[in-house]
User: Which sequence fits this backbone?
């Protein structure tokens, strides 16, 4: 067995922890994980609801404006089509 | 200041804007009725939706940007005799006899008539009204504000609106040339 193998074997051999190691580690672990208070959770819920409300309302308003605009555009096209068509009819009647 | 501007606009439009409420009773007798009222606010809503890259829509934007309102009433009836070209249109014609209005076209052909009235003098057209009556169809158009009739006439057939809608009478073919 080479010196290197001997050194490795010694380094990797099982060693028992010193006495009282487990107790000292467990003493450092907090008994309860601190949890968020109920008040904080309520505020987070209110903020999330408000965010959803604001985003939802603005999206709905954008959608409504688009629908109104498209509708107004179609009405404008219709009105101008009728007006220009009647002018054309008058022109044809005069030239007939 | 906004209300002053509104008041000035309202005063400017007071003569050209016709009261078309007398036509409402015709809707009960009509097979189809279309009522389009585009006031300044609604025109303002429509304008941003007109494409600047489409030449036809750009022409519309140019034409209507200074208008105050466009009102269209169209009625389509089942058969002839459902309305009177004289009596039913009289309340509208009465308003067109007020100062400022001039009849510029009075075309009649069998059962069809088209009258065009202009508000203003010379090139300063402050509004137009078109009365059109056929056997089964009655149309009144009232445009308030400076309007270029040549540009308006040039828009005919450029909107892709179905021809079977009331008021959208397809143009009649030109009569054959006499030899």
Assistant:
């Amino acid at each position: 067995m080479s010196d290197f193998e001997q050194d490795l074997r010694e380094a990797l051999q099982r060693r028992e922890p010193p006495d009282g190691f487990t107790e000292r580690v467990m003493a450092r672990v907090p008994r309860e994980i601190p949890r968020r208070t109920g008040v904080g959770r309520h505020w987070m819920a209110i903020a999330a609801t408000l965010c959803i409300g604001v985003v939802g309302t603005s999206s709905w308003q954008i959608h409504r404006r688009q629908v109104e605009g498209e509708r107004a555009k179609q009405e404008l096209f219709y009105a101008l089509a009728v007006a220009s068509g009647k002018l054309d009819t008058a022109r044809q009647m005069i030239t007939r | 200041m906004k209300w002053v501007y509104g008041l000035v606009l309202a005063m400017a439009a007071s003569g050209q804007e016709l009261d078309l409420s007398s036509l409402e009773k015709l809707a009960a007798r009509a097979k189809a009725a279309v009522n389009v009222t585009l006031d300044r606010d609604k025109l303002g809503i429509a304008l941003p939706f007109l494409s600047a890259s489409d030449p036809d829509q750009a022409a519309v934007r140019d034409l209507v940007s200074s208008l105050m309102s466009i009102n269209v009433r169209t009625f389509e009836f089942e058969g002839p005799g459902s309305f009177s070209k004289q009596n039913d249109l009289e309340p509208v014609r009465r308003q067109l006899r007020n100062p400022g209005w001039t009849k510029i076209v009075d075309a009649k052909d069998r059962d069809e008539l088209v009258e065009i009235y202009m508000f203003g003098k010379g090139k300063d057209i402050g509004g137009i009204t078109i009365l059109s009556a056929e056997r089964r169809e009655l149309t009144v158009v009232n445009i308030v504000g400076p309007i270029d009739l040549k540009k308006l006439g040039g828009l005919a057939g450029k909107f892709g609106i179905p021809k079977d809608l009331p008021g959208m009478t397809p143009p009649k073919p030109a009569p054959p040339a006499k030899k």
